[in-house]
Model the fold of this input.
Amino acid sequence: MVRTEKAAVIGAGPRAGDPLDPLSASRRRRGLVLAFSVLAGFLLTVVWSAEFVDQTVGGNVAEAVLGRSPEAAPLTSVLTGAVFAFVSGLAGTFTACNIAAFGAVTPMMDAAGTRWERTRRSLVPLGWMSLGMVTVSALYGAVVGLVGTSMPQFSQAENVPGTLSGRSVQSMVVFGLIGLAMLWMGLAALGYLPDPLARVSARFVHARTLFLGVLVGGFLVGRPYPLFRQLFRDAAESGNPFYGAMAFVLQSVGNIAVLAVLFLLLSSAAGRRHHAWLARKPGRAALVTGAALVVAGAFTFLYWDVRLLARREILPWYPVAPWAQ
Done:
C-alpha cells in the first residue's frame, strides 16, 4: 500500500490494471474515444464563428470594462497599457486562440479531502501551469519590445485571397505545432503513442502541467486577435522590452482568469465525485484526459491550418456553418 502511494506521489508511470493505465480500457473503447474526440474537434471548427467570438463577445466585454470602444482606447502610459493588456486578455478568453486551454482542466483536477483541501491543492498545478505560460509570455513580450516593428504581427496589410501573409504563416506554424503537441499528448494518454514526458514526469510530477502552460503562453506568438494586435503594436512601438514583457504577461493572465476560476470551482464542488467516477472503471481517467487533449489538439490544428488555408482560398473547400462564414 505504501509503495503504491509513493508511486502515485512521484508520478511514476501507470502499471497494468492501474486506473490511469490507458491499456486497462479495451481497445474498442479507446478507439471510440479517439474517433469521437477527433470528430468533436472537427465539428467545433465547422461551427466556430471568429467574428461572433472576437467582436460580439470579446469586443463587448472589453468595452464594458474599459467604458469605451477598445479600438479607441488611448495607450498613452504604462498604466493604461497594463489595464488594456489585462482587459483585452480577459475579453479574448473564448477566442479560437485560447479555447484549447480548456483541454488542460480535466488532467489537473484534484480529489483531496475537504473542499478547502481540494481548492488549496488545485492551486499547485494551476501555479505550475501559470509559470510556464508567464515565462513564454514575458520572453516573447521582451522580444516584441526590442524588434517588434519588423515582425509579421506588426503588419496591418490586408489578407489577399490565394496568398498567405506573414501574419497568417506565423499563426499557422505556431498553432499547428501547439495543436500537434496536444494531439501527441492525447494519443499518448490513450496508449497509441509513446509518452514524450514520461521520464521527466517520473522525476517531476508537475512536468505535464508546466508544459501545458508553455503551450498556452505560446498562443500569443501566433495570435491574430484584433485587440492583441493593438497591444502588440503598442509594445513594439514603445521599444521597451520591460514594458513588452509586462503587457504580454498581463494579457496571458487575463486569458486564463476565467479558466482558473472555473477550474477552482470544479475542483471544490465536484473534485471528489469526479475522482470517484474516474476510479470506478479501469482506464477511465486516461480516456478522459486523452479525449480532452485530442479534442483541443484536433480543433487547434484543423482550425488554424486547414480551415485557414480554405479561408485564404488556397484549399478549394472546408465545411463551415452559415453563421461562421
Q: What stands out?
A: Residues 241-279 form the longest helix (39 residues).
